[in-house]
Amino acid sequence: MATLQGMSGVDLRALVAEAADRLPLWVGKIYQFDAKTLGIRLNGEDRAKYLFLVETGRRAHFTAEFPTPPKNPPSFAMLLRKHLEGGKVLGIRQLGLERTMSLDIGKRNTTYHLIFELFDEGNAVLCDESYTIVKPLWHHRFKTREVVPGAVYAFEGSDCSTLSPEEFRALLAQSDRDIVRTLAVGCMLGGAYAEEVCRAAGVEKSAAAAEVDAKAVREAFERLMADVWGHREPVITASGCWPVVLAGGEVRERFATFSEALDAFYPKTVGEKQEAAAEKPRLSQAEVIRRRQADAIKGFEKKIERNQRLVEVIYENYTDVAGIIATLDEASKNRSWQEIEQILKANGDNPAAKMVRGVHPADAAVDLDLSGERVKIYVHETIEQNLGRYYDQIKKFKKKKAGALTAMERTVPEKPRTKRNLPLLKKRWYHRFRWFTTSDGVLVIGGRDASQNEELVKKYMEGGDLFVHADVHGGSVVIVKGATEHLDEAVRFAASYSNAWKAGHFTADVYAARPDQVSKTAESGEYVARGAFIVRGERQYFRNVPVGVAIGLQMAPEVAVIGGPPGAVTGRTKVWVELRPGQFEPNDTARKVVRALREKLSEDEWKGLKNALNTEAVAAFVPPGGSDIVES
C-alpha cells in the first residue's frame, strides 16, 4: 500500500500499468518544483493532456494540477528539456518489483532513459541509450554502485512473478523464515500484500516457508499481480492508498484510477510550502538559527538511536558474531578476501554464511544481517572492540546534541530590519532623452546629440509646445510639452545642457519660439547642418540665464534618480546635490555625485536603494563638459 512515507513496489507496479495504458505519449514541458519534485506534461492521442508528477523517494502518479513552478527553472529541469522535449515515450517500465521506474524516450536517433528512484532519499537519473548516466538529480557514491555522470546505471531487479514454478518452490524451500516474511522480503511484497497472499493461498502466515504448499502460494501471488496489473479497484482506507481492495479493508473512498487515488491521498506539499512562504513573514536570523539547531538535534538523536539499536542486535547475536569473527580472522591469514567472498557465496546454505551480506576487503570487515539490521563488523577486532566503535559513535553524537542544546539556550542579537521594497520608476519613452518635469508638472525634453535634436523636432514637437534653445552654437533642442508657469526652469535647463557649460560660462542667453517658426528649409545658398534649425520670426529672449543642475533621489511616488534645474528637483527629492561648471569630467562627476548622495543616507536606507542609486542613473543628468559639486 502507499503510505504518507511513500509507495511500495506493488503500488508502483499498478502505476506503471496504468501509465503504459496511455501510450503512445509525447514529452511536452518539464518542470522542477523543488529539490525533489519534478513534473512532465505528456501529450497523448486525440489531443489528450496528462500531468505526471514525481516526488523522488516518495511517489509518482498523474495529477489534476501541477504546483506553481519557480520563475527561473533549475538547471536539472533545463537539462531534461534540452534532451527530452518533443520526444516520444516508447515504454514505461519498472525495475522488477523495486521502487524504480524508467521512461524510455526516443528523440531523433537516440533513446534516452529517465529513471526515477522512489526509495530512500530518491533520485532522478537521465541516461543515454546504453544506460550511461548523462546527469542525475543528485550525485551519490555507494559501496556497490555510483550514480554520477559517466557511470553505467544498473537497471535490473528481481521479480518473483518471473520465476518458474520450480524456481519459486526452491525459493520457499531454501528460506529459513516463515512464509509471510519470505514473501515480504524475498519477493519484495511488503507485509500487507504478503499477508494477503497467505490468506488467499489458505496458509498460516507464521508457517515455515519450506513447509507450505508452494503451488497454492504461487497461484495466490500470481492472482494478486494480475489484479494489480489489469483489474485495479483503487481505494483509500484508514491505513493507506491501495490499487486493489484487500480482505478486511475498510474502504473510505473509491476512485476510477490509481493516480486519482494517489493524487487525493498525498497532500499538496509543494503548493502548501509556496503558499506558506508567500503568507508568513520572513523568519528572523535568530529563528532561522534555532530551526537549524533543532533539525541538527533531531539528526543526532536518530544517529544515537541507530547506533544503540546496532549495539543491541550485536548482543542479541553475540555467539554467532563471535564465531564469524573468529572464523574469518583465521581464514584471512591464509586466503585473500576475494577468495573468502567466493567461499561465502558458494556456501549459501550455511547459516553463518547467510548472515554475511557484504564484504569490505580494504577494511577487513563484513556486513552482517543481525535481526534485520545491517551491521558492519571488523574481523581483526574482538566483539568488544566492535561494540566499542558503536559506543564511540553514541558518545560523539550525544556530545554534539549537548552542544547544540547549549547553543539554543544562547540568545542571538537581532538587527532591526528597516529595508523596504520600494517601487522603482518604470521606463518611459522620453527617458532616452534629457528630461525633467517642471514644478507645475509639465514635461520638458531635450536632445542629447544632433540626431536626437532632429528626432525631437520632426517627431515629437506639436502645435501647443514651445521650442527653447540656448543662443550659443551647440546645445540641446528643448521642447516644453504644454503651457507652464515655470518657463524659467525650462530656459535654465536649455542653458545648462549647452556648450555654455562646456566652455565654463556661468550664464547664457536663451530664446523660445513657437513650433511653426522652426524649420529645416534653408534659403537659397544656405546650408542647415544636422541637428540645426532655422527659426524665423520674432523670438522671446531670456538674458543672462544662470546655469546650474541639481541631481537628487526621488522617493515617491516611485524611486528614481532625477535631475534638472534646482527649482524643479530639490522639492521632489529626499537628498540632492547641485552642480556648476568645473574641472571634473562627466563620468568622474557621476561617481562623486553617487558618493555625495550616499553620504546623506543612513546605511539601512542605502541598502534598500542600491538598485536605484548608481553611476549610470546619475550620469544621464550630468551636463556635457567639466563640473563641480556646489558645497552646501
Automatic annotation (TrEMBL):
Q: Which NCBIfam families match?
A: RqcH_arch
- Annotated ranges, domain NFACT RNA-binding: 433-537
Q: InterPro entries annotated for this entry?
A: NFACT_RNA-bd (IPR008532), RQC_Subunit_NEMF (IPR051608)
Pfam families annotated for this entry? Answer: NFACT-R_1, NFACT_N
Protein name, entry field: Fibronectin-binding domain-containing protein
